[in-house]
Design brief:
single chain; alpha/beta; Rossmann fold; formyl-coa transferase, domain 3; 2 domains; six-stranded parallel beta sheet; three-stranded antiparallel beta sheet; elongated
Length: about 400
């Protein structure tokens, strides 16, 4: 079957990651997504390299690899919205559009007549999603927002990294290795958009969605927020350890590191048996998870001594056999060679006009009937501008030529 959003049209006027991530997800689900970009420049991430995508001759193209993570399934249309003719193109497209995604500064599109109030006046059914660093209201509303800044301001970096060690002068806050605040915001945006489309079936009206990176970061503090709000404890950095479960962290073996993720007392008893320390499971200090959390340091020191006796492969096989949750710490290349990743179709290959084919990460959603669509690789800048103007807006060839000559598109 076609994707569940087949028949819906999206104008993606966002750049970088949070907004484009939402647009890509909607495209995967079958929506017709038009990525609106600046002529000759395009999305900022087209220039965030090296590395760059190579063409069929092995030469670098103009587009950085970064761009390809968030822009499949979209037609690229270049429009200069600073000109009245460009603004009119957007307004005409909005008349036949269900969703608009943008991440301009607060009020940035109002001067072009492309803000929610202006566009809702001509298409009351429009769902308009604004993604900003701090939202449309509040004392920080006019500040620029970037994922790294939000990870710090929103508390994530205060719980990420090793504890401070004054003796070795190590430790300190660390950002997550990918822009998780942007990614979570993109996911919230896609959910909010689909919720608004469902509500539209009842009201017949669209609405404005106000999404802020800082709000999202606060929301996804999850159990760490609850530890503070309910438990009264300000969480700190524990490295790879878990604040509420022990042992649940990375441990060194004789040759590398592995992850142990013991989630209950029964698993802990099996774990202790495998490491030839069955007495630990009977020790009053470690019998229950609460006691293990309270005696974290002494227990982990004992565990570490045992795990250093053998290599990672030995322990992974032994824990697997005894049904103790464990795993390796893979590099990115190992991830995409993993048989489970391959079996789940998380590495996909789609046709690409520049290189013949393109490897991208698959969408993790698996429907029993509906399809996830991978029929359009991230496009060259402005690749569909003429066809959209001609087929969607019925512009004549002479009008398109004039717009191109004046660098409006």
């Amino acid at each position: 079957m076609a994707g569940p959003l087949k028949g819906y049209r999206v104008l993606d006027m966002s750049r970088v990651l949070a907004g484009p991530w939402a647009g890509q997800l909607l495209g995967d689900l079958g929506a017709d997504v038009l990525k609106i970009e600046r002529p000759e420049v395009g999305d900022d991430t087209r220039h965030w390299g090296p590395p760059y995508r190579k063409d069929i001759q092995g030469k670098d193209t103009k587009d950085a690899a970064y761009f390809f993570c968030a822009n499949r399934g979209k037609k690229s249309v270049t429009v200069d919205i600073t000109h009245p003719e460009g603004q009119e193109i957007i307004r005409q497209l909005v008349l036949q559009t269900d969703v608009l995604i943008e991440n301009y500064k607060v009020g940035g599109l109002a001067k072009y007549g492309l803000d929610f109030d202006s566009l809702a006046a001509i298409n009351p059914k429009l769902v308009y999603c604004s993604v900003t660093g701090f939202g449309q209201t509040g004392p920080y509303a006019n500040r620029p927002g970037y994922d790294f800044l939000i990870q710090g301001l929103g508390g994530l970096m205060s719980i990420t990294g090793e504890p401070d060690n004054p003796d070795t002068k190590t430790g300190g806050p660390v950002k997550v290795g990918v822009a998780v605040t942007d990614l979570f915001t993109g996911l919230y945006a896609a959910n909010a958009i689909q919720g608004a489309l469902l509500e539209r079936h009842q009201s017949g009206l669209g609405q404005h969605i106000d999404l802020a990176l800082l709000d999202v970061q606060a929301a996804v503090l999850a159990n760490q927020a609850s530890n503070y709000l309910i438990g009264g404890t300000v969480p700190g950095r524990l490295g790879n350890a878990h604040p509420n479960i022990v042992p649940y962290q990375a441990f060194a073996t004789s040759d590398s590191f592995i992850i142990i993720a013991v989630g209950n007392d029964q698993q802990f008893a099996r774990f202790c048996k495998v490491i030839h320390s069955a007495s630990l499971a009977k020790d009053d200090r470690y019998k229950t998870n609460a006691n293990r959390v309270n005696n974290r340091q002494s227990l982990c020191e004992k565990i570490q001594m045992q795990l250093k006796l053998h290599d990672s492969q030995h322990w992974l096989e032994a824990f697997e056999e005894s049904n103790v949750p464990c795993g390796p710490i893979n590099t990115i290349d190992q991830v995409f060679e993993d048989p489970q990743i391959i079996a789940r179709h998380m590495l996909i290959n789609i046709p690409d006009s520049r290189s013949g084919n393109l490897n991208v990460v698959g969408n993790p959603i698996n429907y029993s009937r509906s399809d996830i669509e991978y029929d359009l690789s991230p496009q060259e800048l402005g690749n569909q501008t003429e066809s959209v103007l001609r087929d969607y807006l019925e512009y004549s060839e002479s009008k398109i030529h004039c717009l191109k000559h004046n660098k409006i598109v």
